[in-house]
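Archive entry. Fields below.
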Amino acid sequence: MGLHEASAGRPQPTRLLELWSAARQLIVAGSMQRDAMLSATR
Amino acid sequence: MHLGSPRLEVGTTSARLSCDVHHSGEMHTWWIATDLDDIGVIDLGPGAFVPVALSLASSLGEDLAIEAPISAQQLHGCRAAAHVLHRQWGWRQPVVSASTERQPFVAGPDVGLLFTRGIDSMATLVASLDGVGPRVTRLIVIDGLEPNHSADVAAAVWHDTQAVAGAVGLPIHRLTTNVRDEIERYIPWKYSHGAVLLGSALALGPLFDEIVISSSNSVRYPRANGSAPDLDACWSTDRTTITHWGVSMSRSDKAALVATRPQLAAQLKVCWESNRRGNCGTCSKCLLAMTAFTVAGAHSVVETAFDGPLSCEAIRRLGPVPSFVREEVIEAIGDDQSDLRDAWRDCLSRERNHQRRGLAGLDPAERFAAVGMTLQPDEAVGWGGGARAIYAGSANRQVVCDAPAHLDRPLRWCLAARATPGSAQLATVLTQHWGHGGVMLTDDVTPGPPPAAVGRLLQQADVRCWWSDHDHLDGICLLEAIEHGCVPVQVMPDDLAETLRAALPRQRPAW
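PREDICTED_STRUCTURE:
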């Protein structure tokens, strides 16, 4: 998030859970994409 | 800061010039001691303490008042030095107040060389003996500075240094001081060594028309350093000129020059990590020196001056190599010694990867290696901006999917990061606006908290925040946060955050 948003105070719990979910999706989706690329080259 | 008037205290074996210094709200006493033989040539003015006082005042952000008069040249030099220190390290330029007077004695005819028996000062000595360097007539040793030497080892080292002076027929002067210990709490040695060494030598200023300090850097590899040509020259007085010598020589040039005098080369003393009279042959400083001699074709020096052979395995086992001459030494290794070059490259790659290890212990290179992939030292890890996404194997992926967020922990947020201006600013913002949290900032100088301690901090916090002004989402901080049940929040300048949002996959909510 931008510094301006951070300066407005800690996000509400719903927003935090949204960020949590997004972070997990980044990790998992990226890894699955990698798996797909690897299996396509085999 | 207030630098008091020096006083001379004469003991049974040494004479000590002491000075009361008030800084940081405390009174300290700095001293420089000489053997009694040199009591007649001690400079009783404050000039010997001025370089360190100016450096410390600059780093602390205090002004400097000097009670006793100093030479006009040195006062002028203080102001120039403050400018250099500001440029190099970002320190504040202090207001320096002092009266000036002409120094009472004309300079002696001598040229003193600060001598450690390291490659740099040994090369200067050999150049002098060969008539191609400064005309050195006396050697100056600042003794007792090595932190790992016992009294017995220090005595043996001093004995060997005296033997070198005897072998080349030069008088040698020994000084000791507590100034390094006094200021190392505030300024790392690499920032202050020039001021400490040259200041101490100026205690014998009446002897010297010129004092020579040997360059560690060559012009091809300029680095900000506590001893540099433009900085060292600032410490000159009306009577004594400070010369920084050897910048035109590479490390290999110096090694080759020293090797032309086998008897002197055998007396090299570069090792400071171990408590021994000689050179261990396994620490980073020894291995760099041995490599320089090998590159110069001086294999016999490696055999005579070091306690073991040069080993590629020892190089690969090294931890961080803090020396700023390492790139210079490694780049000079020719194709005919590719084994040696590969060993150094492996060592540096591991170090660079280690430096970006997360503070909670996550090693990105290890994570990639675990799934048969290689992470290059310069590759960014994360998402967006060309960074490489960190890979989670299927087992780890399940752990990530199952992990619950915790929003009921004792700390509403935490900031565990390396100290940067951005991190400090973020700590201020979070403290003001986010309620109860925890901050742990580490720097490159002070050993940081162990990863387990950082992990415990993360486990106590709902949210882990960190600052970034890069163009990608930091994968290391993010994954560490997730693995400790913290919501990850990267805070950035607003414009960069906007750009990164656009670069991340669209279905994700705004970061």
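CURATOR_NOTE: Chain A is about 80% helix and 0% strand.
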